[in-house]
């Protein structure tokens, strides 16, 4: 009897331990098949900009990379399929403004597999991705390309501009890994009553990246106008870069057309590893093909010093020269719009931290 009493609790404990171990293994397997990541960028700089009769000094956001906060996750569905989500919104570091925070930078849900990726929601356009890829300063800060909408101003019926950075209500297909070939096709629905194509966007991008070479072209079409009159805005761009040791030269050609306007962009850039950081330089020309004496030229030079893998101290100086009928500005969030035909110079020193 004493043996039975002593063995009963021992066997019961073994069964409980085995059950707990099985539950732990199952929970661990479930945890490994799904993951969620909190990420972001905090970037702020002290900037000064001056032009004829105007000057401003203060804190600017996103001098190296746009400040942001986001969540992303992936779940393994088995059979080679994965589901993913990405929610990302812009933030301002200088004043910490969080009122009305929304995931306006990206809000997507994806299904991924050997076939590639099907992505729906709000995301960058293919043409914009090409612009920021092949410019030394991308589209952030004093040296930013500022070329996502070469035709200045937003057209009637196109709230996000004639060539938007991002589009809502979009469906995208991204190619799987095919050697060095990559590509994307995107369509966003205008969702306008009376004219379903109004404010819609269609874009595609096709490129090849292998070894030191990366080259890609992109196209975008926005349907603008009114409920009864359509106006097509088209954008084309082609970019390339080639890594030569510590040097990476790059070139970009782009054109925006529509509503009897055409602006062409030619940009030449260079990235060079230097010390514990990177030197960046870019020269860009904006040519108005429909109006004389309305061109601009911009030169930017910068250096980023890596304090760690995630933190960089940077400095940039940029200058833009406008012809008699042009009034383009620099990319800084503080940049004033110069008077027509006037020059604009700016510089900034900032700190960027990725987390």
Give a written overview of the molecule.
The structure is a single chain. This protein is mainly beta and 355 residues long. The chain has a single domain (37-354), classed as Porin (Beta Barrel). 11% of the residues lie in helices and 53% in strands. It has helices at residues 2-33, 126-133, and strands at 34-51, 54-61, 68-78, 81-90, 106-113, 116-124, 166-174, 181-188, 201-210, 213-225, 230-242, 247-258, 261-274, 277-288, 296-306, 311-322, 344-354. The chain has a 16-stranded antiparallel beta barrel. The longest helix has 32 residues, at 2-33. The protein is globular.
Strand tally, please? 17
Helix coverage percent: 10-25%
Can you tell me the CATH architecture? Beta Barrel
- End-to-end separation in angstroms reads 63 Å
CATH topology: Porin
Low-confidence stretches: 1-10, 20-31, 153-160
- Spatial shape: globular
CATH class, named Mainly Beta
CATH superfamily: Porin
How many domains is the backbone divided into?
A: 1
Instruction: Round the Cα radius of gyration to an integer and report it.
Output: 25 Å
Q: What topology, given as strand order, has the largest sheet?
A: 1-3-4-5-6-7-8-9-10-11-12-13-14-15-16-17
Q: Treating each run of at least 4 consecutive H or I residues as one helix, how many helices? A: 2
The run of helices and strands is HEEEEEEHEEEEEEEEEEE
Write the topology of this structure:
Elements: H1 2-33, E1 34-51, E2 54-61, E3 68-78, E4 81-90, E5 106-113, E6 116-124, H2 126-133, E7 166-174, E8 181-188, E9 201-210, E10 213-225, E11 230-242, E12 247-258, E13 261-274, E14 277-288, E15 296-306, E16 311-322, E17 344-354
Antiparallel strand pairs: 1-2, 1-3, 1-17, 3-4, 4-5, 5-6, 6-7, 7-8, 8-9, 9-10, 10-11, 11-12, 12-13, 13-14, 14-15, 15-16, 16-17
């Amino acid at each position: 009897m004493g043996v039975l009493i002593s063995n009963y609790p021992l066997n019961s404990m073994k069964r409980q331990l085995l059950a707990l171990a099985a539950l732990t293994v199952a929970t661990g397997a479930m945890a490994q098949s799904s993951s969620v990541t909190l990420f972001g960028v905090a970037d702020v700089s002290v900037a000064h900009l001056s032009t004829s009769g105007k000057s401003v000094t203060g804190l600017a956001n996103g001098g190296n990379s746009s400040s942001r906060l986001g969540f992303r996750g992936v779940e393994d569905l088995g059979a080679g399929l994965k589901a993913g989500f990405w929610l990302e919104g812009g933030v301002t570091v200088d004043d910490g403004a969080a009122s009305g925070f929304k995931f306006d930078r990206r809000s997507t849900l994806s299904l991924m597999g050997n076939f590639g990726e099907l992505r729906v929601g709000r995301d960058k356009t293919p043409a914009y991705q090409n612009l920021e890829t092949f410019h030394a300063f991308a589209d952030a800060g004093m040296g930013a390309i500022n070329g996502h909408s070469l035709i200045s101003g937003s057209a009637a019926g196109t709230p996000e501009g004639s060539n938007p950075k991002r589009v809502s209500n979009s469906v995208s297909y991204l190619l799987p890994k095919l050697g060095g070939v990559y590509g994307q096709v995107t369509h966003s629905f205008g969702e306008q009553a009376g004219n379903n194509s109004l404010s819609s966007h269609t874009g595609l991008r096709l490129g090849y990246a292998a070894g030191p070479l990366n080259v890609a072209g992109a196209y975008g079409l926005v349907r603008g106008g009114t409920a009864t009159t359509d106006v097509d805005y088209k954008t084309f761009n082609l970019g390339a870069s080639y890594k030569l040791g510590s040097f990476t030269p790059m070139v970009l050609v782009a054109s925006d057309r529509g509503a009897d306007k055409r602006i062409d962009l030619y940009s030449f850039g260079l990235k060079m590893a230097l010390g514990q950081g990177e030197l960046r330089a870019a020269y860009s020309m904006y040519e108005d093909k429909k109006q004389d004496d309305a061109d601009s030229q911009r030169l930017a030079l910068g250096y980023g010093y890596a304090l760690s893998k995630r933190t960089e101290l940077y400095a940039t100086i940029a200058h833009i020269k406008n012809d008699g009928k042009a009034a383009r500005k620099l990319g800084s969030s503080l940049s004033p719009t110069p008077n027509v035909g006037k020059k604009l110079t700016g510089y900034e020193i900032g700190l960027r931290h990725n987390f």
